[in-house]
Design goal:
Blueprint (H helix, E strand, L loop, with lengths): L19 E4 L2 E4 L5 H11 L3 H35 L6 H26 L1 H20 L4 H29 L2 H8 L6 H18 L2 H6 L1 H25 L9 H5 L5 H8 L1 H20 L10 H25 L13 H22 L2 H8 L4 H29 L3 H20 L6 H20 L1 H10 L6 H41 L5 H10 L1 H7 L5 H33 L22 E2 L4 E2 L28 H13 L3
Antiparallel strand pairs: 1-2, 3-4
Helix pairs in contact: 1-9, 1-24, 2-5, 2-7, 2-9, 3-4, 3-5, 3-12, 3-20, 4-5, 4-9, 5-20, 6-16, 6-19, 7-16, 12-13, 12-20, 14-19, 14-20, 14-23, 15-16, 15-23, 16-18, 17-18, 17-23, 19-20, 20-21, 20-23, 21-22
């Protein structure tokens, strides 16, 4: 690679003036990389084509494991909560998990940038296994939720690091296709998960169904960890990592703990988690009675969240944090950063309004068994992956994303229109309508979520790839929490009275008692009352009506997706790791005569003649210029 013709976007020529960027109240040299980022760049430079494919296959195995686990675990979760008599609290468990996921994303990004991808991936696998064991052995809602939190913390780390690793080793034009490697297992899992869940529940309990993944998942993660450790060992043997401190050595030096405190932004992460928890969780705890909204344990967290935690978080991140976990300055790029984040948030908010209670609706209002209900739930994932993989191959040629994203959002709105029409019924026609709506929803899901992720990754330099990926995935989690909160509020406040009214109209004896029983444990009604009985017909009618409320809410939210997609830019994706003008800085164009600079409006400190006058900016090591340039060329030659 000739640096005079094609400047490396990851390692700009060190003779070129480095720009400075503003983060909070602290100026840092633009282009300086955290130890973890430098470590993974060097490790990636040691990958041959064979090692790269081993990495991708290992990612597939990990994704297959957590994908199948997540699919069947949702079924086990519904069964567990029904047995515990707390099925109406399914959204509470999901919201708690979403809050943990949203707060954990930036934490994992910051920590992995500092300590490296490999060590944090190992810790994530450990949390995954421990949380699974706690969930499998729980006997009440509190223990089940606690295990879900630990499991979610591990799952979130694995999912984020897998996506970041793919971004670390692929170019923009190839990234969409390779980003679908973690999602490809859904093509298989969508059809086998129903059989797995049904067979496990027939042969044993939901506890064993969850608990077996404490063994399976770590075993499937070993090839990925092994491939990364082997590449790191080869880099160490060549002496490429000698100047980068290892995570253990860093922790062993108390003098660096203060630096770690600021670098990881521990205070910001705590405030972020507190804000999410205080604002989102109380909505689902309010239950189905409006009087509960007057209770102190609901009002107090909301007040503290909105009045104290949220303002404190914003002030800390914008005024105090030296290396903010959520760099608000990036949001100034509304078309390439803020718009994608809005899309991620709105997508999951809308999706969960129809998907949160879909399993109960399928079993009770459509009379589907466990296998069929689980498969219908997975249609979205199956169709979105098939369409997305095909789109990834197309994008390698087309190199543009925007209008595929816009088309996807329009189809998403259409799918919700179909879901409003087909929301229940025991006939084959009604069920086919629902399946068709889920297929359209899945096609839409293949056209815009992952392309939008590639869009936001392209807008920043490699140093912040993990950060923006975490913000994008955190927006998914926030959207999940919002969607679950909305769905729970509608479900808990509407279903009890609709059940009571329906049972009364059908002349069911002891209507109030049965309504309360069905609300708490709907699967028990399915087993006791077949279609055609007054009890089943009344309950199905109530479920269909509440599902109508949910899907109408979803179409209103999804319509905002179209507007957000139209706000996106439509850059051409090249062979670089990020766009040449990422973050508003034009990559300098080097010629034999002189170096040309783009005078970016975000430029803050270094004058144009800093290098020509001999003033080397902070962060430069003139003695390592040639070595860095050679390392730059080698790494970019290895990019997919």
């Amino acid at each position: 690679m000739n640096p005079n013709k094609s400047p490396d976007p990851l390692y700009p020529d060190l003779e070129v003036t480095k720009e400075l960027e503003k983060q909070g109240d602290n100026e840092t040299a633009f282009g300086d990389k955290s130890p973890g980022v430098r470590r993974i760049e060097i490790i990636a430079s040691c990958f041959t084509t064979w090692h790269r494919w081993v990495l991708f296959i290992s990612v597939f195995l990990v994704a297959y494991s957590y994908g199948l686990d997540g699919t069947v675990r949702y079924t086990y979760q519904a069964t567990a909560l029904s047995e515990l008599g707390t099925s109406s609290q399914i959204s509470t468990v999901t919201v708690v998990r979403s809050v943990v996921a949203a707060a954990a994303q930036p934490a994992y990004a910051k920590i992995s940038d500092y300590f490296g991808r490999i060590s944090i991936l190992f810790i994530s696998v450990l949390f995954y296994a421990v949380g699974t064991i706690v969930q499998a052995t729980s006997h009440n809602l509190s223990a089940f939720s606690g295990g879900a939190v630990l499991y979610q913390f591990g799952y979130t780390g694995v999912m984020l690091l897998v996506e970041v690793l793919i971004a670390d080793v692929t170019s923009l034009r190839s990234r969409l296709f390779f980003s679908y490697i973690p999602a490809m297992p859904f093509i298989i899992n969508a059809w086998v998960s129903g059989n797995v869940a049904s067979s496990v529940l027939e042969a044993t309990t939901w506890g064993w169904g969850i608990g077996m993944w404490a063994i399976i998942f770590p075993a499937m993660a070993l090839p990925l960890l092994g491939s990364l450790v082997e590449a790191e060992w080869r880099a160490n043997r060549k002496g490429l990592l000698d100047e980068i401190p290892s995570p253990l050595k860093t922790l062993a030096q108390p003098s660096l703990w203060v630096e770690i405190f600021w670098q990881v932004d521990i205070v910001g992460l705590i405030l972020l988690a507190a804000t999410f928890a205080l604002i989102l969780v109380p909505f689902t705890l309010a239950g189905g009675t409006s009087n509960i909204w007057k209770a102190a344990h609901i009002i107090a967290p909301l007040v503290v969240g909105f009045v104290v935690a949220l303002p404190a978080f914003i002030i800390w991140e914008t005024k105090i944090a030296k290396h903010p976990a959520v760099p608000f300055r990036l949001f100034k790029d509304t078309r390439m950063v803020l718009a994608p984040i809005c899309i991620a948030m709105l997508l999951n908010t809308a999706w969960y309004t129809q998907g949160d209670y879909l399993y109960y609706t399928l079993t009770l209002a459509f009379d589907r068994d466990v296998t069929s209900a689980t498969r219908v739930q997975n249609i979205y994932s199956f169709c979105s992956v098939v369409v997305g993989v095909a789109l990834g191959l197309v994008i390698r040629r087309v190199r543009r994303l925007k209008w595929f994203i816009v088309a996807g959002t329009l189809l998403f709105v259409l799918a919700f229109g179909l879901l409003i029409r087909y929301r229940g019924g025991f006939s084959a026609h009604d069920f086919a309508g629902l399946v068709g709506a889920e297929v359209v929803l899945g096609i839409a899901g293949g056209l815009f979520p992952y392309p939008t992720q590639v869009m936001i990754q392209s807008a920043v330099q490699h140093e912040r790839t993990a950060t923006v990926t975490s913000l994008y995935l955190a927006s998914y989690s926030i959207g999940s929490a919002l969607g679950n909160t909305i769905a729970s509020a509608i479900w808990n406040n509407s279903l009890p009275k609709h059940l009571l009214n329906a049972f009364t109209r059908y002349g069911v004896a002891d209507a109030s008692t049965l309504a309360a029983s069905v609300f708490a444990s709907p699967l028990a009604l399915v087993a006791e009352y077949p279609p055609g009985t007054p009890e089943r017909e009344a309950a199905s009618e109530a479920y269909r009506e509440v599902q109508r409320y949910l899907t109408i809410t979803g179409i209103c939210i999804s319509s905002l997706l179209v507007f957000a997609s139209l706000c996106l830019r439509n850059p051409r994706l090249g062979d670089q790791q990020s766009l040449p003008d990422a973050e508003g800085f034009q990559v300098p164009v080097l010629t034999k005569e002189k170096t040309q600079h783009d005078h970016s409006p975000t430029r803050t400190a270094v004058e144009n003649d800093s290098v020509t006058n001999g003033n080397v900016p902070h962060g430069y090591d003139p003695g390592s210029m040639e070595a860095d340039r050679n390392r730059s060329t080698k790494i970019m030659a290895n990019k997919v």
